[in-house]
Write a structure and sequence with these properties.
Length: about 425
């Protein structure tokens, strides 16, 4: 018999750490934490951070898997909504391919449905596995590896300063202001903020005027040679800026590092950031036919899932759907959550929507829950899904109206790792 319960005892955490190390062997060795440190970290997180919870799956009183659940808040088109997160899903090596992970995710859904949360997210160890479980792709991450001189030399660096742990509240305030303006951003927890300063490898700088910061950057260095200590790369771990002026001050700083930095690694979800950089080539000299120079490496990561379609669309009633007027039937296919496997009639008048108890509509749209989750967040468009045969529309003359209705000008942004 299997049961999922919260980890409470120290011995539970000891066993969970053993499972985590087996599932993610890359966590150990080098500068990574020891098993004892991981156990202490997990127990501290659950005790001190009300948004973090560790759960285990027991089979006949033996722990065979576990996960970490997060209570987040997300900016959904300028409205803060609760969102569930799951991370560190780990299965004992002797119990792989026994549907332990699936049962953990099923409990993840149940846990947040009981809290009246309609939307969840995760970072997949295998995107295809979670796609089959109804998760849709979030925004891509683009990794640039450019020379310092590629960053514009801004007019000044005079407002740049180092931050210490005593300045944590300034980072919190700055991040909160930025997150309030960016669709998809998650609120920062206390443990996230404190971890920035706990890592001895981190440098934290900020643009500060009149005791208020207008942006901050967290970065570290990694060596590029075992025999030449002068060869290093600068890795940007987090970069938040509120104004073009703040961006240029940071850029001037990065530009000035050319004497000791080989290349700068920058991970960003901004699709057109190459307009800002000088030389966007990543140093591989690889050409894509006919003549396209290799620049950013792009990857899929964060995935979204609606776990209560009707509830989530009620959250969306504060958003204006681009002034469109249309009544459509939304038919959702969800093989895991039967309550989502339903039809909803939605009326939009001048962009304002409401759910109707009616069977009168102009057009029907049939879509799987994974694609719907990506669509409503603005990651992908109706037109793109239609051309890829990922959505069925009963009358093609309404394709463009539906495209305009769901269109999102600014795609979601999320820099929270969990």
């Amino acid at each position: 018999m299997r049961v999922v319960e919260k980890l409470m005892r120290e011995e539970d955490f000891i066993h969970f750490v053993d499972i985590v190390v087996g599932a993610y062997p890359g966590r150990m060795g080098g500068l990574q934490p020891t098993k004892e440190q991981l156990k202490a970290l997990f127990m501290h997180n659950q005790k001190k951070d009300a948004s973090i919870h560790y759960y285990g799956l027991w089979e006949d009183n033996k722990l065979v898997g576990g996960m970490r659940l997060h209570d987040f808040e997300m900016n959904l088109f300028s409205k803060l909504i609760p969102i569930g997160g799951v991370g560190l899903v780990a299965v004992d090596l002797l119990h792989k391919k026994e549907k332990v992970a699936k049962e953990l995710i099923d409990y993840f859904f149940k846990n947040f449905l009981e809290k009246n949360v309609h939307f969840v997210a995760l970072y997949p160890f295998r995107p295809d596995f979670y796609k089959k479980m109804g998760f849709g792709y979030g925004p891509k991450m683009h990794q640039y590896l450019v020379e310092p001189s590629s960053f514009p030399k801004g007019p000044t660096k005079k407002h740049l300063t180092y931050l210490t742990a005593q300045d944590q509240h300034k980072i919190a305030d700055c991040y909160k202001r930025v997150a309030a303006k960016k669709h998809g951003m998650l609120t920062k927890t206390e443990s996230e903020l404190s971890s920035i300063f706990k890592n001895p490898q981190n440098y934290i700088i900020a643009v500060e005027e009149e005791d208020m910061i207008q942006g901050y950057m967290v970065f570290s260095f990694i060596k590029q040679s075992e025999t030449n200590f002068l060869l290093n790369n600068l890795v940007i771990k987090e970069w938040i800026y509120e104004t073009p002026e703040a961006l240029l001050e940071f850029s001037a700083f990065l530009n000035s590092q050319a004497d000791q930095v080989n290349r700068i690694e920058w991970n960003t979800q901004e699709e057109n950031i190459h307009f800002f950089l000088g030389d966007v080539r990543n140093g591989t000299d690889h050409l894509i036919p006919s003549v396209y120079h290799a620049s950013a490496i792009s990857g899929v990561g964060l995935m979204y899932r609606i776990i209560n379609v009707r509830g989530f669309f009620k959250e969306l009633t504060t958003r204006n759907f681009n002034g469109q007027t249309l009544t459509f039937k939304l038919t959702v296919n969800d093989s895991l959550l039967s309550e989502n496997n339903q039809q909803i009639v939605i009326e939009a008048i001048d962009g304002n929507i409401k759910i109707l108890d009616s069977n009168n509509y102009d057009v029907e749209m049939v879509i799987n829950i994974a694609e719907l989750s990506s669509l409503v967040m603005g990651v992908v468009t109706v037109q793109e899904l239609f051309m890829l045969s990922m959505v069925k529309i009963s009358d093609e003359q309404y394709v463009q109206v539906l495209h305009q209705l769901f269109f999102v000008l600014d795609k979601p942004t999320c820099i929270t790792a969990f």
